[in-house]
Amino acid sequence: MKNAVDLKGFIQVALVVQDIEKAAKAWAELFNVPAPEIRIDKPARNPDLTYRGREAFYGLKFAVIEVKERGFVIELHEAGEGESTFKEFLDKHGNGVHHLGFCVGERRDAVIGELEEMGFQMRTVGYYPGSSWTIVDSEDTLGVNLNIKPKP
């Protein structure tokens, strides 16, 4: 790739789980850290969020365990109501690693463009103040999806 994903940009491992409360407790016990706060997002219309090319409408439970010493996070996602990349993954695989996240800076659009040219589809694209996230459907080729971000 002309705009290769730099390994120095690794920022996250994201897991999809059926029971986030159970998973958050288990991860906290494993690492001997406080259980992470669980954020609950109810389904809402959001023109800045798409799933498979259409405006997304889904709920999600979400928690983050920070690994500050290594500069990355472990995210836990529990799919809620509505169709989403997380529900799609859970229905197909059950609990597991949904994506690895990478920060690519200002090369985000070039990286995404190259990945599309290589035949990868964009599963979910979300914009929020100051940044964005793009889930690249790369399970069949790489064994895991990618999350490409301009900023952590």
What can you tell me about this protein's structure?
- The chain is an alpha+beta fold.
- It has a single domain, classed as 2,3-Dihydroxybiphenyl 1,2-Dioxygenase, domain 1, CATH 3.10.180.
- Helices cover 23% and strands 39% of the residues.
- The protein is built from 4 helices and 10 strands, in the order E-H-E-E-E-E-E-H-E-H-E-E-H-E.
- Strands 2-5-6-1-7-10-9-8-3-4 form a 10-stranded mixed β-sheet.
- Strand 5 and strand 6 form a beta hairpin.
- The radius of gyration is 15 Å and the shape is globular.
Number of strands: 10
CATH architecture: Roll
Main β-sheet: number of strands, strand sense, barrel status?
A: 10 strands, mixed
Q: Tell me the number of helical segments per DSSP (H or I, 4 or more residues long).
A: 4
The rough form would be described as globular
Radius of gyration, Cα only, in angstroms? 15 Å
What is the CATH level 1 assignment?
Alpha Beta
CATH superfamily: 2,3-Dihydroxybiphenyl 1,2-Dioxygenase, domain 1
Instruction: State the secondary-structure class.
Output: alpha+beta
Strand content: 35-45%
**How far do the termini sit from each other?**
22 Å
Helix content: 10-25%
